Design the sequence.
């Protein structure tokens, strides 16, 4: 490796004095670098000194009101990440109590941060989510007073407008212990017993919309009941009380497949698989339910726990037949005797070829992989391809082009026609490139059968889209 490569080893050869000079030079005019260097200097003096600097920065961030535009977004994101890293990686290992206090203060920044910036890409929420994931271990090391911790948790979960403290009760379960849970439960009981406070007067239109959203017409009462139920669920989950957790769900909630799967999984862990099976049966999903995967996995696990491997095996096949889920097929084939698995895989291929959703079938056959099957599907059902699904069609064409050039060509043609039908000129370059691919594949195709060859397809394109001059200019350019 060159001695001029920028790495830690080569830079260390410059010596401390020269590196210090360079850091002063590169930090000139950069508030971010200066701030980071000061933090490193503070850490060199100890966790307490670093903690004071971090706390000052957190106060500044909370008080700030200016909007974070796209130009400042990267620096702001980096600043948040730096503060979180200083707390969790530098301060907390040396002073857990201080680290816990600062981490809590960092999480309390969420409302202020979201009021100032857009987080459509989820980068900022990831920073806070990662920070929250450290709170349990830090609290265990800090060993705070469980009653005081319960009070702080109560304040957090009752003012959790952006979900910044979601899951905090479960995360802090070891630090709360029985004393903390008793305190937290007492706070929930007291809150539940309090009469509903008269809310501030809503705007008439807002009050009308809230009334429409509520089942009873009393939005604020339902909001309070929902909060109480959520907190009790978390307490029960954290304390391992499965029955108390189940009691917090309404019959309607328990009829949801994902909720039933969650409850059933806990019952299986408690060696109560028979009860788990009943909850699962009572919430059996529809065949096309998009949220059924968790239910299916738990149902199979339940059957196995009950000593019913044949039924579990049969359900793997049923799931595959309904969804073309490759994981279920693999699990089914794995338990079959020799030669039976070959017949079952052939049956799976035949089923995929006739599956109602041609795109799902193509995706399965390409991923399995079964390229001959995928080629057969394309040749027989190319009119059913959804040309807007380039996420499926592009890798399918790439996979098929060497051994099955005609199938790849049909996929490319579908994508070309879709682009020209939409008429978005910015995608004409892509269409021209796809047409060039078709021309290259033409030399590999010995027989088009009943399908038009490349020359005929090109002639039909000219006849159908004679006025797409921007496209034809790009075709001419691509062909040289």
Sequence:
């Amino acid at each position: 490796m060159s001695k001029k490569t920028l790495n830690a080893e080569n830079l260390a050869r410059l010596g401390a004095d020269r590196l210090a000079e360079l850091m002063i030079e590169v930090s000139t005019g950069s508030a971010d670098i200066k701030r980071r260097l000061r933090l490193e200097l503070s850490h060199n003096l100890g966790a307490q000194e670093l903690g004071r600097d971090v706390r000052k920065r957190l106060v500044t961030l909370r008080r700030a009101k200016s909007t974070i535009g796209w130009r400042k977004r990267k620096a702001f994101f980096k600043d948040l990440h730096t503060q979180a890293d200083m707390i969790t990686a530098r301060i907390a290992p040396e002073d857990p109590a201080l680290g816990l206090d600062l981490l809590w203060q960092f999480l309390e920044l969420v409302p202020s941060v979201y009021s100032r910036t857009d987080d459509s890409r989820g980068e900022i929420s990831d920073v806070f989510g990662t920070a929250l994931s450290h709170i349990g271990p830090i609290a265990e090391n800090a060993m705070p007073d469980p009653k005081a911790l319960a009070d702080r948790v109560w304040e957090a979960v009752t003012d959790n407008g952006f979900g910044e403290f979601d899951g905090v009760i479960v995360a802090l379960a070891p630090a709360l212990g029985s004393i903390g849970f008793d305190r937290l439960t007492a706070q929930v009981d007291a809150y539940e017993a309090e009469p509903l406070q008269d809310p501030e007067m809503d705007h008439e239109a807002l009050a009308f919309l809230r009334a429409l959203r509520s089942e009873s017409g009393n939005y604020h009462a339902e909001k309070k009941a929902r909060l109480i139920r959520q907190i009790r669920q978390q307490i029960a989950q954290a304390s391992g009380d499965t029955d108390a957790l189940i009691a917090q769900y309404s019959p309607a909630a328990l009829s949801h497949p994902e909720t039933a799967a969650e409850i059933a999984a806990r019952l299986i862990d408690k060696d109560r698989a028979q009860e788990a099976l009943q909850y699962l049966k009572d919430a059996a999903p529809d065949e096309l339910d998009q949220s059924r995967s968790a239910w299916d996995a738990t149902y199979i696990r339940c059957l196995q726990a009950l000593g019913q491997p044949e039924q579990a095996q049969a359900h793997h096949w049923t799931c595959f037949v309904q969804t073309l889920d490759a994981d279920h097929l693999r699990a089914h084939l794995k338990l079959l005797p020799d030669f039976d698995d070959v017949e079952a895989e052939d049956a799976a291929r035949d089923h995929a070829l006739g599956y109602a959703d041609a795109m799902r079938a193509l995706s399965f056959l390409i991923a399995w992989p079964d390229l001959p099957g995928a080629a057969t599907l394309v040749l027989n059902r190319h009119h059913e391809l959804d040309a807007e699904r380039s996420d499926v069609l592009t890798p399918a064409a790439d996979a098929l082009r060497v051994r099955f050039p005609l199938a790849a060509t049909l996929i490319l043609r579908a994508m070309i026609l879709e682009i020209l039908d939409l008429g978005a000129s910015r995608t004409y370059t892509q269409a021209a490139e796809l047409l060039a691919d078709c021309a290259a594949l033409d030399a590999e195709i010995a027989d088009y059968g009943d399908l038009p060859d490349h020359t005929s397809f090109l002639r039909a394109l000219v006849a159908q889209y004679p006025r797409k001059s921007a496209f034809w200019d790009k075709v001419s350019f691509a062909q040289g």
